[in-house]
Amino acid sequence: MEFAKDEEITLAKEKIDHLTRHLQQVIFGQEELIQLVITGLLARGHILLEGLPGLGKTELVKTLSKSLGLGSKRVQFTPDLLPGDITGNPILQEINGQREFIFQPGPLFTNILLADEINRASPKTQSAMLEAMQERCVTVIGETHSLPLPFFVLATQNPIDLEGTYPLPEAQLDRFLFKLQVSRNDVSTLEQIVNKRELGQEPEVNSVMTEDELNDILKLVRQIYLPDVVANYIARLVDSTHRGQSKAASHIKFGASPRAALSLASAAKARALMHGRNNASFEDVKACAHAVLRHRIILDYNAKIEGLDNDQLIDQLLEEVPFQDTAVPATLSAS
Amino acid sequence: MNDRESAWNQLAGRLQRKINLAWWWQSLAAPWLISAITFSIIILFVRQSNPALIISPTIAIGLVLGLFIIHSLAAYLIAKKRFISRQECLVKLESNLELDNALTSAQMGLRDWPILPSAVPQLLRWNKLRILIPSAVAIITTCASFALPVSAKETNESDINEPRLWSQIETQLEEIKATQVAEDPYFTNIEEQLEKLRQQPKSDWFNHSSLEASDHLKQQMLSDANELKKSLSSGANQLQRMAEAKNQPAQQKAAADAMQQALQQMRKGKMQANQDLLKQLQGENQNGLQQLSKEQLEKLKEQWQQAAQDMQGALPGDDGDWKDQQWEAADGDQECDGCGKKGCDGESCEGGRGGVNRGPGTNKKLLGKEHQADEQGNRSPLKSDLSARSLPGDLLETSEIDHDKSAKPFSPSSSQQSQNSGEGGDRVWRDSLMPDEQKALKNFFE
Q1: How many domains are there within chain A?
Q2: Domain boundary among A198, A221, A244
Q3: Which residue of A has its CA nearest to B123?
Q4: Any domain includes A334
Q5: Helices A258-274 and A31-42 sit at what angle, rounded to 10 degrees?
Q6: Hey, are the CB atoms on B124 and A227 less than 8 Å from each other?
Q7: Pair A208, A254 in one domain
Q8: Is residue A5 part of a domain?
Q9: The pLDDT value given to residue A249
Q10: Is there a single domain that holds both residue A82 and residue A181?
Q11: Which N-terminal residues, if any, form the signal peptide (chain A) (predicted)?
Q12: Of the candidates A221, A246, A261, which is a domain's last residue?
């Protein structure tokens, strides 16, 4: 396999840094979120953003799509939304005197789909997203239609809105690379927002990266070297999320799937590229672990009673699983 | 290989050697400790069984070293499968130093080797207690097994010789027997008692009780022999007096009576005189010793004296028994060492002259300056007046008081004709108790 060259990596890093700075100029106080969103994009993954209303989730997605020069569409999920409203429907049309069904692509056919409040859609509509997110194609009346590449779904959901919502099924949750928590801004960020923004006025966003450049970077991510020891660490980490495989997993009802391991590997590679390295490392895996595993671990009832959340459990797992699977003799101890 | 690569490889090599050495020691420690303790026990056992065996330091060191080498090899073979490779050490270094797996990718040739930090922290340190404790215990037990004094194992009972005292008793007995002065049943009794001592288990021969019994047997035998000898000497002396006081009936009678006493004493003693000798010594004239002539008395006296001397010859010398001198003194010739009086046998005197009973004066047998009489002051016994400080129930004095018993003898009689007024009831405390007891009982009933 051909690995990424240093010059290519340096160039890609510069572009990514430029994109990052650009986004930070528009979205204030969400540096870590922006880093993770870009990581998710470079890892070719879909991202689920969870946060209170008004924190800039939609703004981030719109800014990102404009910065990348990619097409984007927004779908506001409601309970009455039908699957066809997203994927598209065949429409009966008359062409040259003949009536035939012509497929009308839905909003899914775009590069970046912003699925707002995805948990408000019915399970039927949600499941329509499954094939699209995984296969990057849609099948309607037996006919498969490919989605444009790159294709990303950035979905949002409101954690406090419980009435009239349909929690995403685990199968669909597993298709999101990351689940990111959008935290509220601090005082200084709020001040900055107040000074630089006007209500109802959208900021001007320029494109800083072309689609071709993005595709080149996406190819480069796949050429980042994943050392065997890092792959081993990913495997042990994902395995430790299953009950009986670690002490922390005693509170886990269902652990992460192999898709989580693949997600971790991709995310680690993307992060390595963002840091200008041609190899993924233990630290990259550790940095992406929360985002990748948070929505893939199902806790049991006891954990909920004890007040444990997924992030705390992932912290315990990271503490428990060492980078290297080699025992140290008892006659030696860590300094 | 460039400098950075070699530097990193050296560092990884050092870490590898440290970890592998630790694995080897971990595999060695427990078996080595157990072996050292077992080896020490074996050495102690061997030394106890063969007290004469001397293990030279060279052999000891050789044995220990040999054992250590064998264990080391075995530990190496066991620990080998846990040894860490250099590659794994590089990974350990890069993960601890947060190098983002730079060493791994540099080893793949994907990037340059990073610069070695100026101060590489020690990733792992030795757990000193885990290393020192097994080593120390093994060394100490091994050295102790060679150096500790070990008492020999108990010898077989067949190797035990009987106490020398028993052969001394037998020898003494034979000598007394040979004089033919004493009669046989006494010797048989002594021999039986000696045989009883011999029949004890050999491990008990040298017990305190056994040795004390043996000593008592010897002392008793000598005491009995001396008593017989004393009686014979006394009899000879009386016969001499009788011969000298032939024309003095009163003195002769007194001497004859004393002679009879001597004879009675001989008969009473445990070591009986030989009956034949006794008949011979009593004389041919059965009408009494007073009827014998002076020459007959003198002849009789010589016989008795001979018997006494024979007995004396069979007994041990001056250092054997101090009572010889006492009996000589009992004949009236010498001063008593205790009280200084002539004729005192030293047993009945009340002491003095610094003797056993601690009377005033200096014992003649002591070395050094004699205690001067003018240093003795007035002596008066100590009196203690306890009555002022006594508590109820304290015993202040005792005295010998005959209980006031009823002198009337009991005699069987019918109940209607009973002449006894009875000894019970208040007569108990009125008539037969001591004054203090009477008072206490009276107070109780009141």
Answers
A1: 2
A2: A221
A3: A335
A4: no
A5: 110
A6: no
A7: no
A8: no
A9: 92
A10: yes
A11: none
A12: A221
Say if residue A78 is in the same domain as residue A175: yes
Task: Please indicate if any CB of chain A lies within 8 Å of the CB of B103.
Answer: no
| A106 assigned to some structural domain | yes
Q: How far is CA B225 from CA A5, A111, A275, B217, B220, in A?
A: 125, 137, 120, 12, 8
| Domain containing residue A239: CATH number | 1.10.8.80
A201 and A53 in a common domain: yes
A164 interface with B at CB cutoff 8 Å: no
> Are A96 and A215 in the same domain?
yes
Choose from B21, B76, B105 for mutation: most chain A CBs within 10 A. Answer: B105
Q: Which residue of A has its CA nearest to B25?
A: A331
Residue span of the structural domain in which A285 resides: 224-328
Spans of chain B below 50 pLDDT:
284-287, 319-330
**Residues A201 and A286 placed together within one structural domain of the fold:** no
- Contact across the interface for B22 and A227, Cβ inside 8 Å: no
The pLDDT value given to residue B325: 46
- Say what the pLDDT of residue A15 is: 94
Assess if residue A3 is contained within a domain: no
Say whether residue B45 is in contact with chain A using an 8 A CB cutoff.
no
Residues A216, A228, single domain; the answer is no
Encoded tokens for B154: 């108990």
Spatial CB neighbours of A259, under 8 Å, sequence gap ≥ 6: A174, A175
Whether residue A335 and residue B127 make contact (CB cut-off 8 A), yes or no, is no
Contacting residues for B178 by C-beta, under 8 A, at least 6 apart = B314
Residue (of A281, A236, A324) closest to B110 by Cα position: A281
Report residue A153: phi and psi, to 5°: -110, 120
Total residues belonging to chain B: 446
Name the residue in chain A with its Cα closest to that of B29: A331
Instruction: Give the C-alpha separation, A261 to A26, whole Å.
Output: 33
Are B102 and A282 in contact (CB < 8 Å)? no
pLDDT in tens, B303-362: 888 888 888 888 886 544 444 444 444 455 556 655 666 666 555 555 555 555 556 666
